[in-house]
Structure formats: C-alpha cells, structure tokens
User: Fold this.
Amino acid sequence: MNIEKTLGQVCTFKLNSGEELIARVELIEYNFITVSEPVSVAPGPQGLGLVPSVFTAERKASVTININNVAIYALTDEEVKMKYIEATTGIKVPEKKLILG
Assistant:
C-alpha cells in the first residue's frame, strides 16, 4: 500500500521499538508522518486495550513520526478502528447487524 493513500484514514503503525500505535494520518512529508490522537495498544486485565501514546501532550494534539522509525503500517482493522473512535471521541459506534425477516 502506498503511504499517500492513507491520508485521513485510521492506520496501525508497528514501530521499530515494538510498540504498536493507532492514529489518524493527517499529513505525509518526505521523512515524516503527522498523525492525530495517537493511542498505543497495551495489555490489560481484560486483554488488549488502547492507552494514550503521549501522556503529557494535549489530548487532541497532532504528533509527528519519523518514517524511519516505522517497521510496518496498514489500515486498521474495522473492529479495532471502531474501538479507536470510541476511545478518542467517546462516541460508541453501534455494531453492524444484519436483520433477516
């Protein structure tokens, strides 16, 4: 996938440090990707959870990632994306259900 095609999309980034980050891609420059509302995937008592990636920055702040620190990136799985939206906006996205009648 071409990184330019991810503008405005929620993406998952696996950093060289091993950390997995989920964020909305805002801007792509030569060596940098600017993302908004980054969260990290972390283990918790009920399984994997989403926690702020930067605790001391403004919650809605955009941050810049050096492209050289990214090992893998992809569009975020739809189910995880809904959890990201819930975690960053407080809006619970209803599950898509098929009604047969």
In short: The two ends are 40 Å apart (CA to CA). The chain is about 10% helix and 45% strand. The CA atoms of residues 44 and 50 lie 9 Å apart. The helical segments are 78-89.
